[in-house]
Amino acid sequence: MAVLESHHGYYLWKYIPSAPAAGIFAALFVIATIALGWRMYTTKTWFCTAFVLGCFFEFVGYCARASAHNKTGKLMPFIIQNMFILVAPALFAASIYMTLGRIIRSVNAEKYSLIRVNWLTKLFVLGDVMSFMIQGGSAGLMINSNTASAGEKMVVAGLLIQVIMFGLFVVVALLFQSRMRSNPTPASYHSEIPWKQSLHMLYLVSLLIMIRSIFRVVEFVMGYDGYPLKHEWTLYVFDSMLMVFVTGVFYWRFPSELKGKEEMDGAEVAMA
After folding, report:
1. Measured on CA atoms in the order 104, 109, 110, 113, is the torsion positive or negative?
2. 145 in Cβ contact with 78 (< 8 Å)
3. Are 210 and 166 spatial neighbours (Cβ–Cβ below 8 Å)?
4. Could you give the CA distance from residue 233 to residue 41 in angstroms, rounded to a whole number?
5. What's 239's DSSP letter?
């Protein structure tokens, strides 16, 4: 029978992590990794690589979490599950940001972007990388009682960067949609470019990731003795389930048909 153990007198966990729950989500994320990876490969949408890698990170994280059921005093399973589950959504975000750039280019509406399209992806991905690095760097600090507080503050800082960047991202996307509604480009009438559906997909996955990130901010602000870190169900409801939905929605509206004018013209020439 599993018991809660300490690591040199410091309790890494406030509860015994559920192996079945972690196993279920590990299975869901490995399915998402394979399904999205295969779709990316067959459609050559390589900008989705970060998203697929995020699914794999989630899979590794939940595998480590399942193994921690009988190893609550062991350091490595705790570090792996903590870091991989924490930073995976930052990888989702990278592909989401790139998708907006492809939507704008697919309808030749660069003039409607609040931020120059050439800089759009770079700006958001840079913020995403900062968030990723800060959150990833906090993992080593959170395993020691003397540095745990500093680690929690780093995580909060990284998550706040993620929330701010997503907020700005949504503003840019909404402004673009508003301008397109007022004065559509000729390319936007092309029936083979599902730019509206892709934009709606971005809104939904962005909302889900923002909710998750806000929950994580609250979790770490409340600290090691706060309710969320003492009750496992909060992680699965406000993080795990939401991220599974994100992968499902992204697969459903996979951005493989977003092509710029040059690509569309090339395809038409090839068909001719």
Report:
1. negative
2. no
3. yes
4. 35
5. I
Q: What is the separation, in whole angstroms, between the first and last Cα of the chain?
A: 68
The Cα 68–Cα 74 span in angstroms is: 8
Confidence at 118, pLDDT banded by 50, 70, 90: confident
Residue with tokens 């892709």: 198
DSSP character at residue 175 = H
At 172-209, the pLDDT tens digits run: 999 999 999 999 999 888 878 889 999 999 999 999 99
Q: Cα Rg for the chain, rounded, in angstroms?
A: 20
Q: How far apart are CA 237 and CA 127, in angstroms?
A: 26
CA dist., res. 105 & res. 195, Å (int)? 10
Strand, helix or coil for residue 183: coil
Judge whether 100 and 173 are in contact, CB under 8 Å.
yes
The CA distance from 253 to 118, in Å, is 24
Residue 272 has pLDDT above 50, yes or no: no
Give residue for tokens 């900008």. Answer: 47
Whole-angstrom distance, CA of residue 17 vs CA of residue 20: 9
Query: What tokens does 194 get?
Result: 């599902």
Neighbours of 123 (CB within 10 A): 16
DSSP bridge partners of 7: 10
